[in-house]
Predict the structure.
Amino acid sequence: MYNESRTEQALKTRFPQTKRADYDAFWDETLALMHKDPLMFTREPYPYPGTFVRVWGITFNGFEGQKVYGWLIVPQTPSGKLPCMVCFHGGHGSRGNPAGYMAYAAAGFAVVTIDPRGQNGVTQDNRAYTSGANGEFILRGILDEREHYLRGLYMDCVRAVEFAAAQPEIDPARIVVEGASQGGACAMAAAAFSNIPALALPNVPSFCCFPRRIENRQACLRFVADYLCSCPENTDRVLATLSYFDVINLADRVRCPVYASVGLMDTDAPADFFIGAYHYIPGEKQIEVYPFNSHGNVSYPHFEKALRYAARSMNISDG
């Protein structure tokens, strides 16, 4: 009863969108620019121990030709083309090690995962920025939406989905996008800007309601608050730039089903802010609200729930 009551109360949250007039034109232009470059992927076998899975190190052309690195993991099963889990990572994350994805492989999913460009993986960020270049990634290109870091990051995620759909082992009709925190925002962006994903699993998604998170100095947005302390004359320009990447503004472009999670004690990516975005998702959706969980520990109760939801949705039977 308590959890249901808290969920009902939390879901009453509403926030307005902050789209600029050229929002859709901006993203149409961005997608067209990305698709001018060929995907140009590579696969290099990686010697993972055992015979249960095969693993490849991968690369492909991300946005503006940035070389993106990741992994492709394929369980060795006789069941034909496989559903695929495309995994995105939190702030300062990386593709990590293949061992970290074996729960998905054991459930019957192929896995594609990539570095966030210019964070803690091997993928670089070679763009020349004219503002915020020496700061935290959220500050790169902060005065121009066409330069901003998140434009490239979101398009790299779309490219990761396109890479997955192009692999002979993967069923392009059964591709799931998932991630937590920054990765949850990336999963939402991939589902908003590509018609390939069949399901999105955003867990404690970040990058929602940027103005309020700046005001509250939450997580990476504290660096934006610090910047505006020094350059208050740029406030309106900064908020305009970030509006193009705010999950609340892209949510209404998502067409696949969404199964999300939030924690009501999350002070990094507060539940209220994603719930505000959640209401704009036009199609099938479900959200798990965890009253006593914070940003870093929602995954503990939620991971298997999300995996079961994805397996059922992609027609994988329970073992």
Remarks:
- The beta strands are 42-46, 53-61, 67-75, 82-88, 110-114, 170-180, 199-203, 258-263, 285-290.
